[in-house]
Amino acid sequence: MRAKTEEQIAAEEAWNETEKVWLVHRDGFSLASQLKSEELSLPEGKVRVKLDHDGAILDVDEDDVEKANAPSCDRLEDLASLVYLNESSVLHTLRQRYGASLLHTYAGPSLLVLGPRGAPAVYSEKVMHMFKGCRREDMAPHIYAVAQTAYRAMLMSRQDQSIILLGSSGSGKTTSCQHLVQYLATIAGISGNKVFSVEKWQALYTLLEAFGNSPTIMNSNATRFSQILSLDFDQAGQVASASIQTMLLEKLRVARRPASEATFNIFYYLLACGDGTLRTELHLNHLAENNVFGIVPLAKPEEKQKAAQQFSKLQAAMKVLGISPDEQKACWLILAAIYHLGAAGATKDPFFHSTAGRKQFARHEWAQKAAYLLGCSLEELSSAIFKHQHKGGTLQRSTSFRQGPEESGLGDGTGPKLSALECLEGMAAGLYSELFTLLVSLVNRALKSSQHSLCSMMIVDTPGFQNPEQGGSARGASFEELCHNYTQDRLQRLFHERTFVQELERYKEENIELAFDDLESPTDDSVAAVDQASHQSLVRSLARTDEARGLLWLLEEEALVPGASEDTLLERLFSYYGPQEGDKKGQSPLLRSSKPHHFLLGHSHGTNWVEYNVTGWLNYTKQNPATQNAPRLLQDSQKKIISNLFLGRAGSATVLSGSIAGLEGGSQLALRRATSMRKTFTTGMAAVKKKSLCIQMKLQVDALIDTIKKSKLHFVHCFLPVAEGWAGEPRSASSRRVSSSSELDLPSGDHCEAGLLQLDVPLLRTQLRGSRLLDAMRMYRQGYPDHMVFSEFRRRFDVLAPHLTKKHGRNYIVVDERRAVEELLECLDLEKSSCCMGLSRVFFRAGTLARLEEQRDEQTSRNLTLFQAACRGYLARQHFKKRKIQDLAIRCVQKNIKKNKGVKDWPWWKLFTTVRPLIEVQLSEEQIRNKDEEIQQLRSKLEKVEKERNELRLNSDRLESRISELTSELTDERNTGESASQLLDAETAERLRAEKEMKELQTQYDALKKQMEVMEMEVMEARLIRAAEINGEVDDDDAGGEWRLKYERAVREVDFTKKRLQQEFEDKLEVEQQNKRQLERRLGDLQADSEESQRALQQLKKKCQRLTAELQDTKLHLEGQQVRNHELEKKQRRFDSELSQAHEEAQREKLQREKLQREKDMLLAEAFSLKQQLEEKDMDIAGFTQKVVSLEAELQDISSQESKDEASLAKVKKQLRDLEAKVKDQEEELDEQAGTIQMLEQAKLRLEMEMERMRQTHSKEMESRDEEVEEARQSCQKKLKQMEVQLEEEYEDKQKVLREKRELEGKLATLSDQVNRRDFESEKRLRKDLKRTKALLADAQLMLDHLKNSAPSKREIAQLKNQLEESEFTCAAAVKARKAMEVEIEDLHLQIDDIAKAKTVLEEQLSRLQREKNEIQNRLEEDQEDMNELMKKHKAAVAQASRDLAQINDLQAQLEEANKEKQELQEKLQALQSQVEFLEQSMVDKSLVSRQEAKIRELETRLEFERTQVKRLESLASRLKENMEKLTEERDQRIAAENREKEQNKRLQRQLRDTKEEMGELARKEAEASRKKHELEMDLESLEAANQSLQADLKLAFKRIGDLQAAIEDEMESDENEDLINSEGDSDVDSELEDRVDGVKSWLSKNKGPSKAASDDGSLKSSSPTSYWKSLAPDRSDDEHDPLDNTSRPRYSHSYLSDSDTEAKLMETNK
Q1: Which residue in 1560, 1594, 94, 96 sits closest to 756, CA to CA?
Q2: Strands (E), 93-238
Q3: pLDDT tens for residues 1263-1273?
């Protein structure tokens, strides 16, 4: 942990003291300080802030204020690590980083890139190697970090990886994609075949940029197609092969495109080509004046020159990709033919009226050039474009994009009626589509390889969001831009599924409870409005159903319906997804536009509204036969370079249903991806609809999503930093009012540093909301993003707990994995909140797993170091054994050479050495011949096996390809069968439904038929009666008159009945209309109330979300502090253990010093004994010299004698021979002793040289060590003084804080006592008043029931009740607030207690550290003294060693003198022998011989004594040498111990510094707690003031109730009531009631308002009875004074109280 400077600490303290916030407004946000004071009286939901840049004070909404982070968070690398995570803080961090040219920022698991421009130094190769092999935690945010993370994850998990780039057009997605590929190609390394080198990927992007990019209003070089670049890796992690798949190409851009936009770049490159031969061959020397396709050369010379350079670069790139010159020429021919077709144009011939001959070229000379370049005649070209006729069914093998279900009718000319220009545009689009597909196939041919690949990495690059209004254009978006926006929406939905849905599902499956209430569920209405399919989509029908379906399906249906238009399309679309009645603005994904044939669609969760123009969309979705004829035209070309290219691709599966190109590939992974995409196009609905042009767009996006879903996803969000003409909201939709502060003229943001690049904050905020990165980061912070299976976690991290491995055995096989993981986590000593155990996985907070990985790496490195040491030791021992064997072999060779020298002159040996080679020659020749034959046989077998292996490999490859083809065919057939069965089921269901409807219609028909027959019979009867009346068949006149009278009467009755019914109907209609108007008014009021409640609910929801986010941020900050405290505790425990180890080491050193002292004493004693022995040797040598002198005298005496006996002579000879033998033995022993003496002399010389060298080095080391010790002592003293000063300051600060804490505690105690006493009394009084008021209200209710005929005003009574209920509610709110304040005060007391405990703990730690410091200082002094003593002893030992060496030298000199004496004695012995021989000759005397023999024996004994003395001296010298070596070793150990003590002192100093920082942190926390305490005190005072005001209002209410009672007394005067009133004798109660009546009167007069002020005297009358009966309430409280109502009144009062209790309970539950 890096220590903070005093300036940083002071700045943070100053920042924490002032509550800094961000004020959000229309142009961005500004830094301000939130003001809090007792005197502020702001309405609810408002706060007062003071702007930092100008000091202005504003009252703003709470929703417009967001908490600000400290300045240390301005340039954080990960936005998820912000303390307060909100929009303004994120935007501020992005702005600061962007201003410092830091374009990349982590956003949790994703990366956020702010529009990279150019190729700065941050993308150099040196930077690449900086990221190589690193973990994500060790890397700064960069696009290379994403590539390295994906590459590392792929190598570790062997799982496919995908990197998806999201964002608007022009935000740098393609540039980032290029950087990703460059990093992988450079760092991952290329295998031996160099399939995907750096040159190839550069050539690949040069080719794709030329043929697939074009300038637009939003981007000068925009990608107009989607692509998946796949890199396949082998076992070693190197690129084995690569492939690219393309889709959604805007091929119609060649002929038709929006205004002010250009065609593909390749046409401008080709027209600017500087190769004259190629221009002549392509007929481009003379260009047309106009072109219907809008393909015109560049006007500016510099642009032409740049385009020519790009064309040369493109040719070089094609050469690098292995595209031959003929293939390049074929591409140029097709492009030039498209240009000439645009120059030729199309028109209708007015002289022909037949359908087939009306369409023709406008300029035939240009058409002739196009036909020549394509290798066909003009008639064939015209027929393919305008007549749409097939030849031999070759069109059926076409793989063109424009194939559909109606292609069977094209040969008869029954296809859609298209204009000549549309036919020409279709041909141009078809030619360019075939050319682009061909180029993709050629690229894949250059990148494929047959090497075995293990896993792959896919990079997805799609065109970004297209919004013409963002680019400053007023046109509507096209269908192609809708497809690209739809693709981006699908990718955004995939991001949401992986980030939110799958994580929440995983938590639910693992029983991990996490609350994410603040996360809003996104709406996919924009996606559904485009691609939602109906349940009957498999049934082709022209009938329009009411089932909702998307725009693509509606386009397909409307294209088949005769007479359909864009208006009907929009009406159907708005009927499904448009705004309905009652919907609020913004809820619907579709909005109507003021322009005709336009509509608005909200992308990115409604943050990016794009206006689309549907004009011509129906014609676009219809089949264009000219497009289908384009591949046939290329395949039948007379130019072989064209026909060979396209005929070879006619039967291949390089294009899937004319949509996705690049499905070929040699690797298994490429075949698997192609099979997955084919399955998308051949299953279910896709098998039927895959040739529909509209549905084909959806299927392409489905294939893209299904391909990348199977891999692990990495998301990169690219944002536009600045854009002109941006409008993220629709014009017709209501823009979001941020708050009242949005109307203020505020700056666009806080003042940035000078020179920083500026951002478009509203644009960036819109993109941030659309991407939902804030929610993703909150999920990342609050959840457990890292997780591992139990077994995998145990296997990976059991190295951190070796004792568990020993406990469970070598294999570590356990039955209960969960229990084993729990034991492992306990050993790892992790914070409890940093990990969580699921059912099958263990989950970790962000960063925890990275720390475990770091610990694992450290432990693994230590284990590897120990393993290396063991291996090296083993190798050294083996080498030593080998050297011993070599030494033995050398000695054996030497021995053999010596033997050979002895026998080389032996004749038999010479004969043997001569004959033996002749015998072995024959045997060796036969062996050689046998070996040659065996070699030949093995070689032939090897060739045969190699041949068979190659054949088997070829057969295996062929069979694998055949199996893959059969598998794909089988899946296609199976999917076709499934689709057919689904079709059959759907048709069966449709048939059954139709039969059922038919039966119902038949029954209705039968019923109507019967009814019609009855009606016909009645009509016939009526006709017969009418005819009989007319013909006069009724003869009786009287009867006729009677019938006539009856008829007239019946007519009058019918008229009367009609009028009556008409009147009743009108009356009922009027009543219903009145009811309708009333209901409409009530409905309007309810709607207004509902809207108001909805607005309040939205505000409360936003406030709740904001508070929840702040609470979560605080919670995470607290968890981080807990983790930090946990780490500090671990450090403290480690420090204690190291301290105990240091004490043990000091004890051991003390014992070693004592041991050394004892050994030194022993050495001194041995040296003293050696000195005595030397003195004895000197005395012996002097005695030897005297004996030699006496022997010489005796020899002279012996030589003077001349007569000897012969008998004694023989005996003397025998003795002489024995003596000679002994002398020879002694000579040999003397030789050996001389050799040992020489070795001792050499050893002595080496010891002297080594001692001299060690003396010099030791003196130098001691001098340097003395200097270091002196410097360390001085620095330690300085640091100790500084620490003492700091500790004194901290102690003074602590005492000051303790005094302040005691004062605050006293204040709090007094305040709490006052509040409790005051609140208890007020609560008691309020409860008493409340009960009395309830009794009054109950009696008033009884009186109102009796006096309904007196005409009192019920409305005023209800208002009075409402006002009283409001007063009760305010009282309850005051009580609730008081309780809340009590809870807060208790919390404050708990916090203060915690702080006090923490302070006591810190004081104890500080005292303990002080004691440890003193102990360490004392120990240092003791160690210094011991060191000085040891140095003295060492110097004394060195001096003693030098003295011992001098003594050894003296002994050596004495030994040399003894050797000389020995030689002299030998010479004398030889002289004696010669004398003995002379005596033998001269017959010496026997007594003399015996005397000589005795002398000889004496000399031998002396010689043996000398030998023993020499041996003892040698052993003494070796012992002295060993003692010297021990002393040197002990000296080295002492030096190492001193170094360890120095390191321990440094470590203790660092820990003391860390403890100081912790003390500072705790002091800051204490200051913050005191600040919060002060704020709570202020809140408490404000609540007390509010409580007092509420009590005053309650007193006023009681007075007003008294006034009301007085009014009731004046109006309702009766004797019984007067007697009851007079019987009450309590004067105190009367006075109190009078006060309350006055309060009620004043309260009623205050709350009535203008409407009630305009009322007449009825208000007084209506209030009088109520007040009168309320005046009876105190009297009726006693049952003795009201015997009549004794039974009835308590029931009503009880019911009223029970209702009030119920309301109180409901209020408590709502809390």
Answers
A1: 96
A2: 104-107, 110-114, 161-167, 213-214, 222-223, 226-233
A3: 776 776 677 66
